[in-house]
Specification:
This protein is of the alpha/beta class and about 550 residues long. It has 3 domains: about 200 residues, P-loop containing nucleotide triphosphate hydrolases (Rossmann fold, 3-Layer(aba) Sandwich), CATH 3.40.50; about 55 residues; about 220 residues, P-loop containing nucleotide triphosphate hydrolases (Rossmann fold, 3-Layer(aba) Sandwich). The strands form 4 sheets. It has a 6-stranded mixed β-sheet, sandwiched between helices. The longest helix is centred in the middle third of the chain and has 36 residues. The chain is flat and about 95 Å long. It starts with a strand and ends with a helix.
Amino acid sequence: MIHLTHISKQHGSQILFKNASLQILPGTRTGLVGANGTGKTTLFHLITGEEEADGGDISCSKKIKIGYFSQKVGEMSGGSALSEVMSAASDVMKLGDKMKEMEAAMAEPMDDGAMATLLEEYGEATEEFENRGGYDLEPRAKTILTGLGIGPADYTRPVESFSGGWKMRIALAKILTISPNVLLLDEPTNHLDVESIIWLENWLVNDFKGALLMTCHDHDFMNRVVSRIIEVANHTTTTYGGNYDFYIREREIRMEQLLASYRRQQEMLAKEENFIARFKARVSHAAQVQSRIKKLEKIERIELPEQQRVIKFEFPEPPRAGDDVVLMEDLAKTWESPDRDPKTIFSNISGLINRQNKIAVVGVNGAGKSTFLKVLAGKTAATEGSAKIGASVNIGYFSQHAMDILQPERTVFDTVQDALPQAGIGVIRNLCAAFLFSGDDVEKRIKHLSGGEKSRVVLATLLGRPINFLILDEPTNHLDIQSREVLLNALKEFTGTIVLVSHDRYFLRSLVDRVFEIDRGEMTVYNGDYEYYLSKIDKDHKQR
């Protein structure tokens, strides 16, 4: 379908690709991985024609329809959520209008030749209309919107009234609705809750019949959707025939083999170069020396890929808290608003959070998870009941708004040092490096950082302080897979107490030992890990 052959591309002095090739074949499900800045988004742009390659060849099969979802939503205004989604298939709707015109023309008298030509055109149009899903366009748009969390009550809501995160869902729904032959998805799970992620996962696996190429920071999502990985690194692409876990294992095996080959070649080169150095001045060995020089010139040198340094950093042991970290008694929260009726988020919540618990708070979007965390953190007061914080408990709270209070003119180093005024320069640099800010990166100003980089700065300031109770609201948002692994490993080693909300199922499964589910204003406590929780709710659903 789509072939990129011997592609070269650079932005200014930055070389992205040299002699890189890849294929997107019918029905393939491919994950695109690589560090930030290696060229993943540029590959999408080369495929869609937004950018041109400096060299090489890009070929696409005729009549293929490409759907591309990126993190840039663009303008949305002047219509409802449903009409905005259906507008993406305007060419299909025009094709339907053309078919009606042809049907009307066929009812008029014409000679046999003209009728035969019209019938042939009509047959081609109806086949394309059916292949493009024209006959069920509106029901499909509604199904996809609902799956992404925008239900029937919001179909007719003005699109400009949605927040940025919800507009991302509408933009994603637009791309899915057009039924493309090739689907390019750049971080489709950003801004989705667990329920929407699971729906999208099932839709891609069971309903979508075209080829898929996507980037995604969700470990589980990648594993379940893709069956092939293309890694972008060292100015080229490498294909692995398996899911994300297979890629990780196979990459390690290939790296070990490459290192072994590199060492053998280095030993051979050293031996040959030593011979040349010893005998180059002897006439009797001139022929042998020249022969070996020519041999070395012809050898293709093995190059090792650039490897990111693995930082070993031990986070400070937090001060010991009492065994009872939070005691909740009849906790309730109601939001008051002058222009609408009061809305009770949750009520009658009682329970105990113990020292060293690692708790996931789960529930559908809007269930009140973030509000519950705010009450625990003291960022909003409970309407009824109480959440009593135990003895010697020091709270650290992370929310998406934490990034907004960073001072834009301060550097990464300054920001971390401000949070740890007693720490030495070496400790601060090591802490920055543990969160992937090494070398000159620590001198970057906050205003020049991406969302993911800002998240890492805030997390570094939290985990470097003597905090023994972490309350984390979506800490993995904006983080790539490598950054998520850094955070996950840090939290695994953290000896304090954690309560968090996250839509990353791999993260939850790897970390938590208890689950609090908020559903219709009530809380159910599951005294087991995330897999235990999933098995219990699956059993409950089957019994209903």
